[in-house]
Structures are given as C-alpha cells and as structure tokens.
Amino acid sequence: MCGINSRYEQLRREEKLPRKMVQTERAESQAMASASRGETSSVAVVGGSAAGLFTSLLLARRGLSVQVIEGLETIEPASRTLIVTHRMRSLLGSAMNGSIINQIRRFELFTDGRSATISLRQPDLIVERRTLIQHLAAEAQRAGAEIHLGRRFHELHPNGRGLVVEVERSADGGREEVRAQTVIGSDGAASRVARSAGWPPLTTAPLMQAIVPLPKDMPPDTVRVWFVPQDTPYFYWLIPESRERGALGVIGESGQETRVALEKFLEKRGLDPVEFQGARIPVYTSWVPVHRQVGQSSVYLVGDAAGQVKVSTVGGTVTGFRGALGVAESILNGGSSRELRTLRRELDLHLLLRRSLHSFEQADYSRLVDLLNEPTKAPLSEYSRDEAWKILWRVCLRQPRLVLLGLRGLMMRRRSLGRQRS
Ligand SMILES: Cc1cc2nc3c(=O)[nH]c(=O)nc-3n(C[C@H](O)[C@H](O)[C@H](O)COP(=O)(O)OP(=O)(O)OC[C@H]3O[C@@H](n4cnc5c(N)ncnc54)[C@H](O)[C@@H]3O)c2cc1C
What is the pLDDT of residues 88-117, one digit of tens each? Predict the structure, then answer.
C-alpha cells in the first residue's frame, strides 16, 4: 500500500505524473464531491486479475466506491510465470514484493547456428502471477474495494443516470444486479464488457508454454530466444523460473499448429514438459479507445480487454498496469491522461517493430543477429522493452543497417498480424 502511495509522491515530486492529475487537486476534489453525492463515485470493475485489481486499488485509494466482480470462486488464478521489465517496480512499488521469484540479467538470441548475447543493466523480473494477484487483491480490499467472487458478468445496460450490471452467480446460476456510475472492463482478451458496450472483438493469437526442467547448461539468470521463421513469425523462448525449472513457450498463429510446433521443439531440445499453460492473447493491431459512453455513463477497458499488449514481444503485464493507471487518471481527471497517451505511442512503436519482424525470413534473422554488435547492443542493455522509443532511436544512430533491414521487412509485408476473434 505505502509502496504505491510513496511512488505517487515520488512521481509527483519528479513531475512524472501528468500535471493535470497531480496538480489539479480541484478536479479530484470535484470528483470526490460528486462522489459523495453518489453521482460519479461508484465503479464496478469486471475482472479481478492484474489490470482490474490495480485499477480498483488506485480508485479506492482516492475514495471512490469500488466493487470488483470476478468470475472465479477464489482468488486462486492459474499459476503463470511472467517476465516483466523493472518498470513494474516503479508502477507497483511494494505491492509486488513476494511475487518476484527470479531475476534475469542476460538474453541469448539464436537463429540458424548464430547467436548474440545482450546483458541487461537493470535485471528483468520473473514474477509469479498468482502471488501478485493475491497481493493486489489484499491491497485493493485494504483500500476499501469490495471483491465479489464467483460472479460472472452477463451484460450491462443504462438505467437513469447510471448503469446496471447483470451478473450470474457461478454457484447456482442465479442472477444479481450491481448498480454503478462507471464500469471498467478488465475481463481479459475475450472481454464480455467490451462486447456488451459495443467495442469490436480483438485480434488474438495463441500463446503456449511448457514448464520444463532447466537444461544443465543454462544459467538461471539467462533467457534464451530462438527465431525460427518457418515455425512462427514470433519466436520461442525459455525463461528460467528458478535453478530447476523454466517456461519454454511460443506464440503462433493457429492453436493447433502452435501446439505441434511447441511439442516438436521440446522433443528437439530433449526437454520433458511437466505442465502446459496457454491462452489466446490479444494482438495489438491499433490503439483501442478505452472509453465509451453508454447512456449517460462511462465504460472503460483496461489490460488485455483493451489489447494493451506489446506486440513485438507479446508482454501485456506492464502495459496493462499502465493502462490501469491511465484509466484511473482519466476517471479522476474527468478525461485526461498523459499515461494513456504515452502508452499508445509505445504500443504503436511495438506494432511497427512487429510488422517489420513479421515478414522476416531466415536470412533476415541471420543478418539481424550478425548486426547486433557491441555499439548496437548498448541501448538494448541500457533500456528496457518498455522504453522502445529510447532503444530504437539509439539503435538507429549506431547501426543504420538495422534500420534498412527493418524497413525492408516493413515493405515486404508477407504475413498479416493474427486474426480477429469471431
Ligand atoms: C501462458 C501465458 C504466459 C504469459 N507470459 C507473459 C509474460 O511473461 N510477460 C508478460 O508481460 N505477459 C505475459 N502474458 C500476458 C499476460 O498474462 C496478460 O497480458 C495479463 O495477465 C493480462 O492481465 P489482465 O488483468 O488484463 O487480464 P486477465 O489476466 O486475462 O484477467 C481477466 C480476469 O477477468 C475474469 N473474467 C473474465 N471474464 C469474466 C466475466 N464474464 N465475469 C467476471 N470475471 C471475468 C477472469 O477470471 C480473470 O480474473 C502471458 C499470457 C499467457 C496466457
């Protein structure tokens, strides 16, 4: 709790929070005044996972009345190992303590017998998702949010000056109604809130990973990435969770082909899977406006529900938290959020990179790995994947041939990005 507070204070001092949010206390107190009149303050957050709980925490701390509606019966989400940049620390502060299970200091990239190593100045973090979500839930509750478990969102409709959210109890199928002035959909890539409020479906891609014993030659602080364009326009990865285990995964285009590719890759590497994890994840193809007016009230989307995923690497945790922060700012400021503007710029840049990489053939990847020489690697070591503009700008200066390679990829456009969920 105090982590987020103190982080806010620090950002505020460093003027990294939007002036409008931190300086127009008036806007906030106006929001609070209308909150106390019951006009704008009641918020229903559908989906009590990472993005939804963080949004709930931020709003509850500012005195809004927050009800979280979560389909699961307990706060025991599927366990999943996430790799995130150190940016997450600055967003969550102490709320993420206890969920960090390993740190990554190096990336090894492989393609067609070639390799390149990139050391990270600030380590990436390996986070256990279940623990993180349980921490966030406890923090949100402590801030005053109410969490209703075992309630599945069904639909929403306007009613007078507010919204009625219809939910179904998982236990007996009975229906309940929750009334709120504002609804936030944080119910993942297949968001029912988004459909109900009129957003079109997102493009998605299958992500699958197998938990495997860590190969003996693999240091626990190193991630391995393989580019095999004949299998996938994305990549394979092996991320160590600990000295003993790692997650070997791949993103593909069709579920069946991705599963077959993963099994073949496991076999080729002589790795025995202990467990499989997977889901369809959003493919960012353009910015999804996060707000819609329904009747006289507002509906927002955050996290995977809004497609807030870096499509170059398909990481959605940090960007989902940034989306949550942006929507919280937007609600408290009456519309404005600098965080959402910078997030959009960042996601658009990752889209540009993905469009280029998506057309790469083996020869292009070989060239890419060969061009990752010392001067080019420096920005990759220094800046995280959540600071793509800084990396790209410096790489352009140090290795113009990489820019030409990227432009070539963009012009080829051999494959399109994912497909839309029907
Ligand atoms: C196997 C796998 C590995 C991944 N690895 C990484 C990684 O290493 N790094 C990274 O940054 N990202 C990773 N991601 C992506 C990352 O997990 C997601 O971007 C992130 O978890 C999205 O969080 P969210 O809160 O937006 O949505 P979700 O985590 O999808 O949460 C949605 C919540 O809504 C609830 N819900 C859904 N429908 C309803 C309903 N109708 N009513 C009520 N509740 C509902 C669900 O129960 C769930 O709690 C991975 C994804 C997968 C599948």
Answer: 998 998 778 789 999 999 999 999 899 989
Q: Find out whether the beta carbon of 279 lies less than 6 Å from any atom of ligand 1.
A: yes
Q: Is 408 exposed, middle or buried (0-12, 13-18, 19+ CB in 10 A)?
A: middle
**d(C-alpha 70, C-alpha 147), whole Å:** 7
- Closest ligand 1 atom, CA of 279? 53
- Please list, residue by residue across 186-208, b when 16 or more beta carbons sit within 10 angstroms of its beta carbon and e when fewer do: bbbbbbbbbebbebeebbbbbbb
Ligand 1 near 385 CB (within 6 A): no
CATH superfamily of 102-124+203-282: D-Amino Acid Oxidase, subunit A, domain 2 (3.30.9.10)
pTM of the model: 0.86
Angle between helices 400-412 and 338-357 (to 10 degrees): 80
Q: Within 13 Å and on the Cβ side, how many CA atoms surround 164?
A: 8
User: Which of 53, 211, 250, 304 for mutating ligand 1's site (highest number of atoms within 8 Å of CB)?
Assistant: 304
CB 189 within 8 A of CB 304: yes
Q: At the top level of CATH, which class does the domain 2-77+130-200+284-349 belong to? A: alpha beta
Query: Would you kindly state where each structural domain of the chain is located, as residue ranges?
Result: 2-77+130-200+284-349, 102-124+203-282, 352-420
Pairing status of strand 42-46 against strand 182-185: parallel
Evaluate: CB of 188 within 6 angstroms of ligand 1: yes
Mean of the per-residue pLDDT values for the chain? Answer: 84
- Ligand 1 atom closest to Cα of residue 320: 26
Q: What is the maximal distance between C-alpha atoms in the chain?
A: 66
